[in-house]
Structures are given as C-alpha cells and as structure tokens.
Amino acid sequence: MAVLTMRDALNQALHEEMERDPSVIVMGEDVAGGSGGTSGNIEAAGGIFGVTKGLKTKYGADRVIDTPISESAIVGLANGSALAGMRPVAELMFADFVGVSLDQIFNQMAKFRYMFGGKAKTPVVLRMSMGAGMNAAAQHSQTIYPMLTAVPGLKVVVPSNPADAKGLMKQAIRDDDPVVFFEHKALYSKKGEVPDGEYLIPFGEADLVREGSDVTVVALARMVPFAMKAVDKLAEEGITCDLIDLRTTSPLDEETVLESLSMTGRLVVVDESNPMCSIASEIAGIAASKGFASLRAPVEKVTAPHTPVPFARELERMYVPSPGDIEAAIRRVMEGA
Amino acid sequence: MQQSPDQIRQAYRQMRLIREFEERLHVENPKGEIAGFTHLYSGQEAIAVGVCENLRDSDFIISTHRGHGHCLARGCDPKGMMHEIYGRADGLGKGRGGSMHIADLDKGMLGANGIVGGGQPIAVGAAVACKARGDGSVSVSFTGDGASNQGTVFEAMNMAVVLKLPKVFVLENNGYSEHTGASYGIGGDLKTRTEAFGMPVWEADGFDYFSVYEAAGKAIEHARAGNGPSAILATATRYFGHFEGDPQNYRAKDEVKNFRETKDALMTIRDKVTGAGIFTAEELDAIDDEVLKLIDASVDSARNGPTPGRDIMMSDVYIDY
Fold first, then answer.
1. Which of A168, A194, A220 is the last residue of a domain?
2. What is the CATH number of the domain that holds A61?
3. Does residue A201 belong to any structural domain of this protein?
4. What is the per-residue pLDDT across A274-320, written as a single tens digit (0 to 9) for each?
5. Do A68 and B100 touch (CB under 8 A)?
C-alpha cells in the first residue's frame, strides 16, 4: 500500500497496463504536450491534470500520441484502433467536449458489437475530467455520466477515491467493451491508500463504505466524500446509514442498493448531475419498482438544480450538493420515524 | 486605406485598453480573488483591433476562449467585463459565465466560447441573417491555430462558401494550441487549406495594426459587396500561458521576452504613428494614462461588486424560469 493522489493512482494504472500489454496506447490533446514547441521538451504537460505524465518518455510517441484539438477525430482514432486490435486509452480533457465528439461515442463505439453480429470488440477507454469545483463554468464543469449511462453498449465508471480509480482503470483497460471513465477534477489531488501492483475492481460492484441501519445513502464520485461527512456527523447523534458508492453506473449494482433498502426502508440518492434523467432518478425509479414494499418514506434526491453550472464562486457552491444538503435530506427521510 | 487621426487614436486606445486589461488580470489573478480559468490575449491586440475597427454596429463577431481582446475591440464595457471576471451579479453575464463566456448581444458580440471550434458554425448562422437582412452587414469569427483543426471549422468554411455568405474567418496563429506547438498540429498550412475551400485569404502581420486593418478591410469589403466569404491569416504570439497558471514548459525561456522587445504590437503602432508625425509620444502617453485609470477603476469596482445569489442562479435557464 502506498498513499497516492487520485491523479497518481490513475497514472500508476496507466504505467502498469502499458508495461504489461504493448497493445495499450494513449491519445489526446497534450497527453504529453510540447511537440512543436520552442523549449524542446517533448513532455511539457503530461495531460493538463498530470494523469498521463511520464508515459511518452517511457513508451514513446508511437504509443503516446499527442493529437491536434479535434475531439471527433480523437474518439475516432480510439474507435478504429480498437477495431483493429489495439487497446486505446483516449482522453477528452473535459467531459463537456463529449459534445464535440458525440457521434463517435454513441452512434459508433457503443454499437459496433451489436450491429456487427457480435464479432467486433471495441476495447476503448475514454477518459475525461468532469465536475464542478474549479469555477470553470458552464462548458467545463458538467457531470454528464447520466447521458452516457443511458446508451446501451457503453460501460460507465465514476470513481470516488484513489484506490478505486486504480482498480477500475486497470479493469477498464482490460475490458473488451468501450468504457467511459469519468475523473472528478476536484478529486485529482485527494489522497488515499492504493494497493500496489495487480489490483482490479470488477464493474457493477458497488462499495459499502459505511454501514448503518436507519437510511440507505447512495452516492458516486465527489458526492461520496460529501455524503461521508454527513453520514459520520449523523452517526454521532445515533442516526446510522449504509453509504453505498456505486463506482460504476453501467453496469449498475441494483442488488446492493435494494438489499440495503430492504433493511433500512429509507433512501437518499446523491448525484452532482442535473435532476432530470439523472442517476438519482434511476436509483429512485429502481426503488419505486423493485423496492416499493421496503420504502417507509419518500425517496430523497439530492442533486444539482436544473440549470447550467454557474461560474461565480458563490453560485457554484450553491449549485453543487453539499454535505449540509445531504444531512438535511437524511433528516427528512427520518422524520416521523 | 487612409485612416484619420481620430481613427488611429481610437485604434491605439483600444489596443492599449486590451493590453492593460490583460496585464492587470495577470497581476490580479494570483491574488486569489478571480475564480476559474482565465486565458489572456496580450500580444495579439493588433489582430482584434485591426479587424474590429473595420466593423459597423450592425455586424457580428464571435470569439474564442481567449476572448477578452475581441470583446473589448468590439466595444464591450470594460467595467462590465471586469465585474463578470470577478463573478459579480452586475457583470455582463451576471456572474454566471465568467472569463470564458463574455458576450454582449447589444454590441453584436455573440460570445467568447469555451468549446474550441464552437463559434465558427454559429458565426456562419449570423452570416445567414446578415445576408437575409441585405444591409451589407457581415459576420466575423475569430479562430485560433488550435481551433483550425476542428471539424466544425472545416464545415463552417465549406458552408459559408457554398451559401456565398458575408462571412470573414479571422485565423489567429499565436503559435500554440494549448501546450503544443502549432507547427506540430497543423497538416499543410492554414493559408492553402483555407484557399482550398474556394475563398480568398489575405495574410497580415498580427503584430502590426495597420497590416491587419488593411487585410481585414479587404475581406470585409469583399463580404459587404456580396462576393462571399474570405479569410485573413494573422500571425502573432501570446505573452502568457494557455491559461493563467500555465508553467509553459513548451516554450523557450526567452521567447516571450524577445517578442516583447522586437515585435510588440503596442510598440509597433507607437513607432509608426510617432514616426509619421501623426501623434507625439506625449499624446499617446496621455491615452495610456486615461486607460490605466479606467482599468484601476474597473478593478476596484469589480472587487467590491455585488455577489450573485440564488435568484441569479435559478433564472434565465429559459425565458420564463
């Protein structure tokens, strides 16, 4: 075990997988950086968040490909190289840039295997930073995982901590289906213990990070540490919660959620995305259709509002669900208990 | 194209305004009061001003993530912009957009844009409206060397040619696409590529206001006369990083210093104007003083501006929301 930031845990996973498998290649804008610059430094960036640092120096320009700013072509590059036998890890820098490349994601990579008679394998990992927290405003802060979770054929990963980020990244690279890997930019510098070497986390297995008996709290990505704060605070008052970190939204671990709900009867779902057609909506829907008999209170959804992500510090703070919002929601489902 | 002393004074003031606005943001940014990503335009002033000094009120421009210079050159209020950058409720975007999303529709300024290559197709749409109005107005998009590799830009160019629209593509090569040199990312060259769509391309020295003004004048006249789209290609540099805080490991140590000492756009226009006896150095210094006071006042005002509240977050998602 080493204590690493999520940035370094992801970087370690990439190094290990590139070392292990020569078919793993990395591509994107400034994944190395500096080509064509005047300093002569051919790894001037290592990814704008530093996740791909050291890869080009170690594995060379054929396996670590700096691309022009051409998001459609970046995802196309990943798609085609995957169909032709490589294991590309492509970076979109910001999840918002999915907007520029959406055809390649949801019409192309997601559907090859189904359309092509089950013969195609598309082992693409499409990495992207997401989320509010840097006041990067409406076109650099979105958490669009619900949109891509809705697309059959895509697997969607949303880690909340360094160890999961490593284990899920190694799994994603070895997975033969296309995987969209969301990295919350406010988590990159958060530290945690990370297992050394071979460490893989299967998809579709949520993590029960706190155990309790009163309320089931479901969260993902940055909302997990926020929910932890709320859950730990309430535990001091004797209100105890199961806190479930989904880790992947497709496949989605319904079983863990329903099993917990059957014990607690109360559900709070925390999701940084906008409320309509969110993961919060999906979990609430599952509870309504498959866990209805267990429910002792209305399901509480704690989400961002139905607005774009605002810029100003005060506005962004209001936009993002806070530990206080989560605590209040837990108290609401406990009312009358 | 002879310009009157008043026009030249205005152009110089606009360039100085952009320079001081950006240099001041570079000083203020590390103090922690400005949130988010700030991309500065210092070094490229002659391009924005050389183009916009050719425009009429009825024309449109659309900008990039490096948009402050285009906004100021188009006449956006510096104080309103500063308030926006500081996230104030009375900023041009009510504190919701920030540096990357400054716009003023009243000025025909269709927005800075956080998506590289996002603006060009929109500017083609504005050109459709200009053509429909039939009043000789034009639509201008600014595109960096990085954005020039986006499919959206190719599509926009082709569409503008096919529809013979009053559209001017301003290609600004500042040498870097984020952290990668332009020479690495661009296949072929920008001029030949753009000409291949069947439109004329005028080249300009992006450090020289007069060179840009002349090239842009030809392109805009071409569009106003109903001859369809064209482009100008202007080469300059950016004095700061891709964003504020960028360590710029991709740049040679003295690159910016050399540009500042030998090519600087403000230095160039001052030398030309004083050399031709149009204004004295003292007259230009007086403009500089006035601009400095305006920037000081804008920053002071922005630092003490009103904080946006929940009502601002929850409004304007739709007309009625």
1. A194
2. 3.40.50.970
3. no
4. 999 999 999 999 999 999 999 999 999 999 999 999 999 999 999 99
5. no
Is the pLDDT score of B1 beyond 60? no
- Are A49 and A70 within one domain? yes
pLDDT at residue A337 in the model: 59
Q: What is the pLDDT of residues B50-91, one digit of tens each?
A: 999 999 999 999 999 999 999 999 999 999 999 999 999 999
Which percentage of chain B shows pLDDT scores above 90? 99
Closest residue in B to A94 (Cα) is B115
Range of the domain at A156: 2-194
- The verdict on A226 and A189 lying in the same domain is no
Asked if residue A102 and residue A218 are part of one domain, the reply reads no
Band the pLDDT of B2: cuts 50, 70, 90: confident
Q: Could you tell me which chain A residue has the CA closest to the CA of B36?
A: A135
Residue A177 shares a structural domain with residue A282? no
CA of A211 vs chain B CAs: smallest distance (Å): 35
pLDDT band at B321 (very low <50, low <70, confident <90, very high): confident
Q: What is the pLDDT of residue A336?
A: 66
Q: Is A91 on the interface with B (CB under 8 A)?
A: no
Answer yes or no: do A171 and A242 share one domain. Answer: no
ipTM score above 0.90: yes
pTM here is 0.96
Both A106 and A144 in one domain: the answer is yes
| Annotated catalytic residue A140 | yes
Does domain B5-312 correspond to CATH entry 3.40.50.970? Answer: yes
Number of domains, chain A = 2
**Where does the pLDDT of residue A65 fall: very low under 50, low under 70, confident under 90, or very high at 90 and above?**
very high
Query: Does residue A104 fall inside a structural domain?
Result: yes
Choose the closest CB to A69 out of B97, B146, B309.
Answer: B146
CATH number of the domain at A280, please. Answer: 3.40.50.920
CB contact under 8 A, B180 and A137: no
The answer to whether position A199 is within a domain reads no
pLDDT(B126) > 70: yes
CA distance A198 to chain B (A): 33
Residues A57 and A98 in one domain: yes
Q: Are B80 and B91 spatial neighbours (Cβ–Cβ below 8 Å)?
A: yes
Residue A94 lies in a domain: yes
Mean pLDDT value of segment B1-11: 92
Asked whether the predicted pLDDT for residue A110 surpasses 80, the reply is: yes
What is the count of residue pairs from A and B with beta carbons less than 8 Å apart?
Answer: 167
The reply to whether A116 touches chain B by the CB within 8 Å rule is: no
